[in-house]
Amino acid sequence: MADLADVEDALSQLVVSTLYPAGTDNESILGVFCRAYRGWPSPAALNVDLQAGIVNISVAPDSDMGRTTTRFKLSWHADRGPSTLIMEVVERTVVIGGLPTVGEVAGVLVDGESYVYAVRDGDTPDVVAAVLAAMVRSTQVVLLTGATLSIPSAVTVIARSVRFGNGFEEVRRQERDIRIISWCPTPSLRDTATAAIDQAVVRHDFLTLPDTTKARILYKGTSVYDQAQNSLLYRRDLIYTVEYPTTIVEVLPAMLFGHLSLNAAEFVA
Known about the structure:
Layout: H1 4-19, E1 34-38, H2 43-51, E2 55-61, E3 67-68, E4 76-79, E5 85-90, E6 93-98, E7 104-110, E8 113-118, H3 125-136, E9 143-145, E10 148-150, E11 157-163, E12 165-184, H4 187-202, E13 206-208, E14 214-225, E15 234-252, E16 261-262
């Protein structure tokens, strides 16, 4: 589920990619070293950076609690991608290929009996083939060569792979005001940094969060602070209202063959 921290992280990453479009190993668009992070800088560390000509960009929520904006009917949505494990059958021979990944299930149906294996981390097509061959050998003769298994005495052979998916339900929606604050040693650096960040954010109506949900982002305003007590501090705050969902996620099982026996025993495959 998405959290306020995920929203702040997404904005921080957007700031970094804006200031360092060629990567952090290269020079920033400002021509000086820049730091981008969540939260507020410590005054002592910020003063040291300003004296060294370093720009700080911080991302932090406003102090208000925000508000709940839930308005959509509760409903479950499925998200299931295609399987990257390939299962091909030529007569009585099964050829396994592709890239097995966790969350996929491989199975063969031999004369009405199903044999199913859930892929584990690090599995290769050869490993999947070997596991399935060992299962089928409980009732059939199997010839195994690499990622290929042949079942010469079988009448019918079917092989399939599927991927488990995720089902999610949005249970709440909320919005918070978040500031992207530029702390700069000169007015020109402040103006250039703020303009670049604002142009980057305005191109994104939505931010993608780690759980694949979207956060709506809208410009709210700008505040300028040129504080007399620190002659090296030139600050500008970009304020955005971000609306994001809270979701519940469940794993969705996948079906290979329907109602049959599983691994030669009486279960649902």
